[in-house]
Amino acid sequence: MKAAASPGPVLRIEGLVKRFDDTEVLSGVDLTVNEHEVVALIGASGSGKSTLLRCINLLEQVDDGRIWLHGDDISDPRVKVDSVRARIGIVFQQFNLFPHIRVLDNVTLAARRVMKTPRAEAEAAALVLLERVGLADKAHEFPDRLSGGQQQRVAIVRAVATNPELLLLDEITSALDPQLVTEVLDLVHELKSVGTTIVMATHEMAFARDIADRVVFLDAGRIAEEGTAAQVFGDPKNERTRAFLTRYLDRL
Amino acid sequence: MRPANHPISDVEIGRRVYRRTQNTRSVLVSLVSTIVFAGVIWLTVINTPGWDQVQRSFFNLDTAIQAWPRVIAGLWINIQVLFFASIGVLVLSVIIASIRTLRGPVWFPLRALAAAYTDLFRGLPLIIVLFLVGFGLPGLELFPRNSAQFWGTIALILTYSAYVSEVFRAGIEAVHPSQRLAARSLGLSHGQTMRIVVLPQAVRKVTPALMNDFVAMQKDVGLISVLGVVDAVRAAQIETASAFNFTPYVLAGLLFVLLALPMIRLTDWYTARLRAREQMGSLV
């Protein structure tokens, strides 16, 4: 991929604003994500984590500010949204696999239809990925016959199958029980080890602390605090971060 | 999957024996009750005072045999019309339903047109559409002269597409928005999302409703006889008039029922198969 090799940050956001009717969900967010970096977005429900991810993927139209993906301004209305989305992978809380086509077809869909990769080639690549996450034997099953953890791993494989420049994870473990969470998080660790650039919204504080190069605490649509995992979790500067983390760390 | 090499417990053996006897008993009970029920109805009907007369006028075997070739030839025309009309309805209604789900101001005229079309043709009685299309359109002399059968098929397509497009639209809207979200986030265009992700799931959701409309159309195909096409209904009418006997109508009716049955069974089987293939566990 040509763009992936270029210097500079993968993602740069400046003064991002998003409103739903009269409520301002994001009020001026600035964020830079560098190559091979894993950034964790934390914050209470409704703080704007998911909305931020959906704005990056152009699933929501921004109300102000700019977003650059490898230097291309993707908030420009003249940009081709489909081709931008094809450069970014996203995984949702509810997996959102396509129930009427097999696992392998789910994984290869974007490659075949958007990238126009020949089927045989796309399937060979997909099988390698499925093998790596231990789901090669499920390739010809239908998604609804898999467990939640398996479905979410398939969804992650589907998102990375086309080698996106950036991977967005939107609370990917919130719909899973604790045992299944582990198998999904292990997969994210593996993605980090191969250098995938990731922005993830999460409620798994232990995991965020463990994997993130940088932690961003969102509060009421603003970045209240930002720093290394050790700094944000160990020595939060902001009053609200401290209050938020206390509630969580009690449970850890 | 783990291999099932557990020894079967005594409790389970007991349960299986019990279920088996229960099954045998229910089969026997339903068999006996069906025979009794049919017998009662049969005796009641043939003991009515006018039965002989009715049997002669409606269930006359000789008349049926005599009418058979003509009615069957007519039915063949019905089947042809049905075949082409079904294809036409499927294509047109999917197009209209897709147009009605388009977003964005550019598409307003098309959307409005599609909405007006469904409103108009769902409101118009089929028989009026048949007369207008069958006798009116050829009069424009825009097209080469076509048979009444051709115009009858067009009229059926126009009317039924209006109903079926609403069925498709309901199906399209019943597919959860998250599916569309997931498809678009992979970079699929609106059209691709519709074709590859939404429509296949929508069709599955509305198959029973579609079948309902298909069977309804199968019967309404008989209405093209008003245009002078000698289909099964018209043939039966002619035979009835020449034999002074209503049996040809009964014969044609039975043939229409027989025509509908395989399709109904086929879809039931097919939807059950898809469900079993894609989902785990038993359905309650």
Looking at the structure, what is the overall shape of chain B? flat
Read across the widest sheet of chain A, the strand sequence of neighbours is 6-7-8-3-9-10
Strand content range of chain A: 15-25%
Q: In sequence order, what are the helices and strands of chain A, one letter per element?
A: HEEEHEEHEHHHEHEHEEHH
Q: Quickly name the level 1 CATH class of chain B.
A: Mainly Alpha
**In CATH, what is the homologous superfamily of chain A?**
P-loop containing nucleotide triphosphate hydrolases
Low-confidence stretches of chain B: none
Compute the separation of the termini of chain A in Å. Answer: 41 Å
How many whole angstroms does the radius of gyration of chain B measure? 26 Å
What percent of residues of chain B are in strands? under 5%
- Main beta sheet of chain B: strand number and arrangement? none
Strand count of chain B: 0
- Percent of residues in helices of chain B comes to over 70%
Structurally, how many domains make up the residues of chain B? 1
Largest sheet of chain A: 6 strands, mixed
Catalogue the unreliable spans of chain A.
1-5
Rounded to an integer in angstroms, the radius of gyration calculated over CA atoms of chain A is: 18 Å
Which topology of chain A does CATH recognise?
Rossmann fold
